Description:
It is a single chain. The chain is mostly helical. The chain has a single domain (12-201, 258-479), classed as MFS general substrate transporter like domains (Growth Hormone, Chain: A), CATH 1.20.1250.20. It is 73% helix and 2% strand. Helix 4 packs across helix 15, helix 8 packs parallel to helix 15 (391-423) and helix 12 packs parallel to helix 14.
Amino acid sequence: MRFISQGTAVNQKIAVSVVFVLALFMNIMDITIVNVALPRLGSDLHVGPTAVSAVSIGYLVSLAVVIPASGWLGDRFGSKRILLIAIVLFTLASALCGAAQNFGQLVGFRVLQGIGGGMLTPVGMAMLYRTFPPAERVRAASILVVPTAFAPAIGPVLGGVLVTSLSWRWVFYVNLPIGALALAFGVLFVKEQHTEHAGRFDVLGFLLSGFGFASLMYGVSEGPQRGWRDPFVASTLVIGVALLVVLVITQLRTTEPLLRLRLFSDRLFRSTNIVIFLGTAGFLGVLYLVALFFQNGLGLSALNSGLSTFPEAIGVMIGAQSASRFLYPRLGPRRVMVAGLLGVTLTIALMSLVDSTADMAWMRVLMFALGLAMSHVFVPAQAAAFARISAEDTARGSTLFNALRQLGGAVGVAVLTSALAAVGVEHVIAGHSVPNLASYHAAFLVAAGLALLAAGAALTIKDADADSTRAQHVPAAAAQSSKDAVALPRHTAA
């Protein structure tokens, strides 16, 4: 496997990291910042609370359609080219969303934004892991943690300020300077990466995955709102699952599949993906739940809610350093991830004891602890996942990894929202309807259960499989930086 690289002679570890972190930060922050603006947006565009959810669902569905094809696109047309196209699409769509004159335009532009976002993350992650050799993957993973965990925390704070001080349109306009900076830096300094043989485009695989993931994502997103027994929700879920079953069968029989599902035969890749799916479901589900708990349950403003969530980001920053510099090289992924997930489980379970604004100081401590513990999951999982995946398969592996992470986040939100609805977010006391905090407490316990399941999955990881990513456990030559790109051994099934 050989990579063809062209461009300005700049340290590619720095160049790729800067562009991808900026783009990923913009992409992830957009989801949480838009959620804060939905009530004001719906009011200004004369759309009801139920219908306004199309702004988020349209984005998620288009994301689900594009992600499966992103790996092939990067291999066929060049990773740099596709990454920059994705940044342009996302940034342009952000400007169009901010300028939308009616709700239909806004939803359409959000779909365009999702197309850019769907290509951005898998292609950018593949570039990052091709640039960093295995022994330095933990450094790359610690870089990825910053946008992955910091952006969801800063989004509600920034969204509250922009919506309160300016208008909902600025939650989209804020992407423009970030996108412009990422694009300029990428054009000037990032070198091209592409494979010599990307293979033919699997049209059947694209259609099955696109319609399957889109149907499943729509059903999972709408289920908590419309009810899981709603005929349309139920039918989209059934159709989505059926199409994905057919997809798996056809992909395993195709010589050049769009999704290289045989990568899951590698036990390390398989285990880390299961951990990421369950861990992301619990983590992003809790971030969504906490916003509702603070605002609807405890009566905080959107801004105060965001500020109370922010300690999670500080915990992530600190935890990422300890995980990448000290714990991972010495202990390997298994013990670090299990300890981190047990910490996440305990932290979320303790959140179920908070029942008034008098406990907010304690709640902020728990948010910090959540970020600290979760960083010890994200860093080792991202560092170890591709340890035994060849450079040729990295883009396709990144596609699978990000598809499962995206689906995990949607499933987590859906499961916790369903738990809220099952208990009831309001009850009547002395003739008045008041928030039912017991529903939030139950949802916190469900999220803790998801984290505990992830800890069980982490126990299946074998540290020896990830030795190539632990600098002090491999020969010095393996830890040397590659000049432009790295050729890894071709993947073999475990």
